[in-house]
Design brief:
The protein has five helices and three strands. It is an alpha+beta fold and 101 residues long. A three-stranded antiparallel sheet has the order 1-3-2.
Length: 101
C-alpha cells in the first residue's frame, strides 16, 4: 500500500523524481520553476511529506538532503486505481477504454 499524497504534495515528489535527492534550496527552486508558491508553502509540504513517510531528510556532506521514499510508479499506480474506483467502480479496463475514446 502506498502513502496517500495530495496533489500539492505530489509537486514536491515530482521535483525529487525529476532531479533526485536535493538539499532545501535547490528543491525549493525546482518546485518554484513549475509552481508559483512561496518558500513557506513548500516547507510546509515538505514537513507533511516527512510526517507521512513519503520523503526522508538526511544529512549528506553536512547538508540536509531530501529524497523520495515512494517511487513514481507506485504513486501512478495508486492514482490510476483511485481514478478507476471513483469513475468506474474499480474497473481499470473501463478506465482504459474511456481513455482510448
Amino acid at each position: 500500500m502506498t502513502i496517500p499524497v495530495t496533489e500539492a504534495e505530489s509537486e514536491i515528489l515530482a521535483a525529487l523524481w525529476r532531479r533526485g535527492p536535493l538539499s532545501a534550496k535547490p528543491l525549493i527552486e525546482e518546485v518554484k520553476s513549475v509552481q508559483d508558491w512561496g518558500d513557506a508553502t513548500i516547507k510546509t509540504l515538505l514537513g507533511r511529506l516527512m510526517k507521512k513517510g513519503a520523503i526522508l531528510s538526511e544529512r549528506v556532506d553536512g547538508r540536509q538532503q531530501y529524497r523520495a521514499l515512494i517511487s513514481r510508479s507506485d504513486y501512478v499506480r495508486r492514482e490510476i486505481g483511485l481514478l478507476a474506483r471513483r469513475l468506474f467502480g474499480g474497473d481499470q479496463q473501463a478506465l482504459l477504454a474511456a481513455l482510448k475514446d
